[in-house]
Amino acid sequence: MGLLSQGSPLSWEETKRHADHVRRHGILQFLHIYHAVKDRHKDVLKWGDEVEYMLVSFDHENKKVRLVLSGEEVLETLQEKGERTNPNHPTLWRPEYGSYMIEGTPGQPYGGTMSEFNTVEDNMRKRRKEATALLGENQALCTITSFPRLGCPGFTLPEFKPNPVEGGASKSLFFPDEAINKHPRFSTLTRNIRHRRGEKVVINVPIFKDKNTPSPFIETFPEDEEAAKASKPDHIYMDAMGFGMGNCCLQVTFQACSISEARYLYDQLATICPIVMALSAASPFYRGYVSDIDCRWGVISASVDDRTREERGLEPLKNNNYRISKSRYDSIDSYLSECGEKYNDIDLTIDKEIYEQLLQEGIDHLLAQHVAHLFIRDPLTLFEEKIHLDDANESDHFENIQSTNWQTMRFKPPPPNSDIGWRVEFRPMEVQLTDFENSAYVVFVVLLTRVILSYKLDFLIPLSKVDENMKVAQKRDAVLRGMFYFRKDICKGGNTMVDGYGKAQHSTEQALEEYALMSIDTIINGKEGVFPGLIPILNSYLENMEVDVDTRCSILNYLKLIKKRASGELMTVARWMREFIANHPDYKQDSVITDEMNYSLILKCNQIANELCECPELLGPAFRKVKYSGSKTDSST
Ligand code: GLU
Ligand code: MG
């Protein structure tokens, strides 16, 4: 989750004293990069995925599953045996927030050819195998977005008690600091967010009211004044960064051929974020309870919300400069491309001095305000040894602010002195149980970028509508019940292939608005006279591409999964988990997930991930890679 510096971390008070220094030099570093590479045109698309994993341990005798706090050791061995031994090693491993987490990516980025879509799943399998091989007996590597009993007594191995005292990092009633990655960046982030905010973070997730759930559902925390005040009735209360950043996701980063292509993709994909998030929903349970949300987004957002009471608008501004409407982890606030300008309808708080400086340096309004908005934030961690840098050749101060703005999309300038191009990162997706599903979501998003660029598609709607979509996307069963604002005519490039749909829609719909409320099924699969559907567009693109038979077969399988998840023919992971718990013999319809229920759920997830059992309601019948057998390829998707 970003920059890892070594050294002695500074406290919040010390970091704060250097905040202007970090911002000033961060901007100088950005300017150096911008001037050096603003005109660079790379002709090849490159891209890569990131999968985050949890390490779990099964206690079969006592029917318990716990998170294993060995991420640092496992990572060390993976790197030692992998990238440090062989620079061409097929996988790369990185730390993540939880001491029970690791993150894996392909060793080299994928290129622009179609056949590479056929290697994604193999690479993910390799990762799973590589890391699994290092685990102890009864341990497993899981791709689950949120661990259902995270923060419940004894959820870690070894077991640690939470230590809600001032000296600690989280001060949490539930989440012990030992579950945080031991690299000082992570505990410092945790502590400094809390100190900057002036109180513990507050996460309140609505509880799912089942037949026997107490109503109102109230938890009391007499021993903790902050918790007593912050916890809300009918909500699951959480009080630590680990409840958010301790969740896993699936991300994709693209290198565009130029800065303007990157800006175009950034905007277009921003509108897709809530849609794909709802489609990937996989996190219905928190702190041992069934919640009423399906996605982790708002939980992480609250878990790293470092805004003071003044910034949140609860007190008049006195010590702070701005009211800030969102957490550092949230949806984007402005489009970056020229076509996006007229849809920028969210009030943007910016650092005016930085904005003026960027304009003077020849940067256009849209990019200048984007950077000046990111830079309203303070640095959260700073290492004593890393204060004075060479701005022409280093970018740590820029990255410091950039990498702690965790938004749905990230616009990434090249690192200094590298041959990497301008990139955008797509960040909203929840991680799925299997490599097959994760590949399907990744391939879907990458193909979508190909189609956006080839057909010059335009998905833009007012950004405030995208924000409304983000709220809807996290609700329980949003994939089937949610209605999302989406652009009706997406063919501004006037492409003939998709134009037919555009015309059909003009004649049948009279509305003046460029967008309408649509279901995910309509957006993904299309609806006669309303919207062509993203999958039909991808299919027609594929029909016109030269693709080897085997790759085509894999891609069609992936798109079938997405199509069926959108139509409801297949369940999302969130829905499937809900049904699993609802049907568990121990479940008392009281929204409580016991140790034993958690054990059977995670055990089942692990069996599915390792293909030890089928799960047609989640994956369909053909979840195993169906090789071309000489018969007609199925193009019925
Ligand atoms: N785990 C975080 C999430 O679920 C992302 C951390 C990162 O940026 O790598 O969104
Ligand atoms: Mg990560």
UniProtKB/TrEMBL annotation:
InterPro entries found in the cross-reference section: GCS (IPR004308), Gln_synth/guanido_kin_cat_dom (IPR014746)
Subunit structure, interactors included: Heterodimer of a catalytic heavy chain and a regulatory light chain.
Catalytic function, reaction form: L-cysteine + L-glutamate + ATP = gamma-L-glutamyl-L-cysteine + ADP + phosphate + H(+)
Protein name according to UniProt: Glutamate--cysteine ligase
Family: Belongs to the glutamate--cysteine ligase type 3 family.
Keywords, sorted A to Z: ATP-binding, Glutathione biosynthesis, Ligase, Nucleotide-binding
Membrane-traversing stretches: none
Superkingdom of origin organism: Eukaryota
The species this protein was found in: Mustela putorius furo
Pfam families: GCS (PF03074)
One GO location term (cellular component): glutamate-cysteine ligase complex
Pathway: Sulfur metabolism; glutathione biosynthesis; glutathione from L-cysteine and L-glutamate: step 1/2
Keyword ATP-binding: yes
Source organism phylogeny: Eukaryota, Metazoa, Chordata, Craniata, Vertebrata
Gene from which this protein is expressed: GCLC
